[in-house]
Every structure is written in C-alpha cells, then in structure tokens.
Amino acid sequence: MTAIEFNHQLMGMQSKLGFFAKSLTSDQEDAKDLLQETLYKALTNRDKFQGGKNLKAWVFTIMKNTFINNYRRNVRFNTLIDSTDNSYYLNLRTESVFQSPEACHNEKEIRTAISELPEDYRLPFEMQTKGYKYKEIAEYLNQPLGSVKSKIFFARKRLMERLKDFR
Fold it and tell me: Which domain covers residue 48, as residue numbers?
C-alpha cells in the first residue's frame, strides 16, 4: 500500500474514529485529542502496518491502546495534593507499632503454612508475592513459564485449603 492510499483510507475513517473516541472518553475535547493522537501514531508508524491486514482494525486498536495508556497515566499521576506545611508526611508509609495478639497469631500461622509448602512450590510463590513477574521467576529458576504459573497456582490452592478458616 502506498503512502497516498494509506493516508486516503486513514482520512476516510476519521469520522468513525471520532465516534469511537467520543464513546471512550465521554468528552468532546478529550475525544478530539485522542483522535489527533491516534492519527499521529498511525501516520508515524505507517511502516509497521502490514499491507494485507485490516487497516481499520489496526487504527482502532491504536486508539483503544492509547486511551488505556492515557487513562492509566492519569490515574497514576492523580495524587492528593496538600498545600499545608506538613505535606512531606502525606505519602509516608505509616506502620502501626501495635499489633493485636490475634493479628500476630494469624501472621505466624500464614508464615508457617507458606514454609510448609514443598520448596519447588514455595520459592516461586514467595518470589511472586515479593513482586517478581512470572517471566522473571521462570528465568531465575531456569524453568518454563507454564511450570512456574502452575506451581504458583497450586501453591495458592494448597494455602487456601490449609487456611480456609481465614475466609
């Protein structure tokens, strides 16, 4: 597909893209911004479009992904703003010094249940709870990704059976 054909088809679907943007954003100005950003990304990434594929689906996917990324970025950056002098303490992590005896007992019981798991289940489970991604765990343990996912699944299942009183 030549650049002229690509541009012509892209401009031909502009009104449909506008309606889709409006349905995503529910705001006329945000929809215009999303449409403009989508068209810009489609034009700058024209070389990544494979000619025999569906251009309409490709552009609509760009718009949907752009909307999702913008939404996630906005949620991440919308933090509480405090104009008082003690704003330093606003995002500090607060830890309670006092733990009830019941909470201490529950934590000990959960830790015991985790430690009783077989090591080939416990290690991937602990890594996952510490924030490692499945792929990182698989690479570290030198195991297939599917095996790591199933071991974590079965570890959760065993823990749920063992700790059913916590529900």
Answer: 3-77
